[in-house]
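Batch job 17 of 40 flagged for manual review because the log was empty.
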Amino acid sequence: MTANGLFQIALFSAVIILVTRPLGGYMTRVFQGEKVFLTPLFHPIEVIFYRLAGVDEKSDQSWLRYGGSMLLFSVAGFVLLYALLRLQAFLPFNPQGFGAMEPMLAFNTAISFVTNTNWQNYGGETTLSYFTQMAGLTVHNFVSAATGIALAVAFIRGFARASSNGIGNFWVDLTRTTLYVLLPISIVVGLFFVWQGMPQTLGANVDAVTVEGAHQSIAVGPVASQEVIKMMGTNGGGFFNANSAHPFENPNALTNFVQIVLIFLIGAALTNVFGRMVKNEMQGWALFGAMGILFLVGALVAYHFEAAGNPNIAALGIDQSASTLQAGGNMEGKDVRFGIANSALFATVTTDASCGAINSWHDSFTPLAGLVPLVNMELGEIIFGGVGSGLYGMLLFAIVTVFIAGLMVGRTPEYVGKKLDGYDVKMTALAIIILPFSTLGFTALATALPAGLAGIANPGPHGFSEILYAFSSTTANNGSAFGGLSGNTPFYNITLGLAMILGRFGMIVPMLAIAGSLARKKITATSAGTFPTDGGLFVAILIAVIVIVGGLTYFPALSLGPIVEHFSMIHGTLY
């Protein structure tokens, strides 16, 4: 590792800390219906949407109505996107003349974007028209992200409200998130991306003549507008197959830095929203602290093992040390514009959050560096996480933590003034268990059936890691991939699609049930016997619970993949 690489990680961390509180304060005012500087511009538009949809912005919904609205909206989004993918040959803005997407692939893709996963079993620039990219994918990048944020705010209201049957209004939360949070930032940063060299055009591909005299067709399109919400909404689905390693999606080091800041931006701010809405900002900073520690550990581990390189290559007499003439370490699968530090940082950030965008090939990472993205996803991507999903995932672990602490001291578990009963803990356990059930269940199925094994290009522990990564990514609604796995088959299109559904809605439904239960309870005043949840001890126990639950659940599977691959590598077997 180099001082420059460590500085870049420190700079990124400092920027995230600096933007968390201002953005958190702004978002809190938006969700509480208070006036903000954009109210004069967007409130008239907001009112028009409510009237067209027949929504009363002052009405409150129970958790069942809130969840039902969210599910109906998601089903409608899936149907519309599936139709766009199947009918794109007859729709406008298709200068390349792309045909309809194959049915199973369209099913997988539609589920992927509705669930904020954005897993792609296709190359965007060779498969999708401009209309499908804009009206289909970009729109869902907005609304799936807004759905996650709305759900997080509804969960927060469960803690913040007392003796209430309602947790908010899904349609109002969805509209305000899109208009006041996602859209303004997207416009500003999208223009910045255009300035930095990202294409934003409806023109056809550009024909170029190479130095050798050959003709080359260069794909362009409305890239910048999709890129900004792809990152900020933790969607990750790229306009190009190479994603953020493509120079049109990520032109330089400055756009690379802005992109990773965008990934954490809203997830970090939501911790402050939580603290403000429960009337104790330190509660939010405690969650931020736990997330930040886990992030730094992962980033430094990934960076260390990538910078160390592969000992088998060093044994061949190849110099892997960093110097003024070379980056050193494991540069396989990395863009020389970004190097090892920014590649390891990007991989950590994108899998801490449910983004899935990449600027390097995770399949080429050394085994233990590749273990970091895997573990990040398998913990439920609670380390800042997806927009919304990261916060409510961390809050579920916070409930488990106070339950365990309550058992240790013989007191009824209590969190931010709400006493937790058996129903709350059971729903929490269900929400947490559904993720390993999907990840490990589908991985076992794929390794036991010929249809699953047929997709492996790299037999042995690395091939197993590729399968485990695929189902970890889809269940966690991440969307990144190790690669090396032929995912565009009927078996994987169906099973990966089902994993996305379970990972998204299997966790949301019990989470909303907890929110409804908590909202109906009174807020208990803090006493001398209350376990403090806004200090260092709580943060330490919370991290321990997360690591232990993740370790006990996934360690056997990880031992068969990246861990055994690491020991094979250091003992002389070259992968």
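Reviewer: the log was empty due to a logging misconfiguration, but the result itself is present. The mean pLDDT is 88. Unflagging and moving on to job 18.
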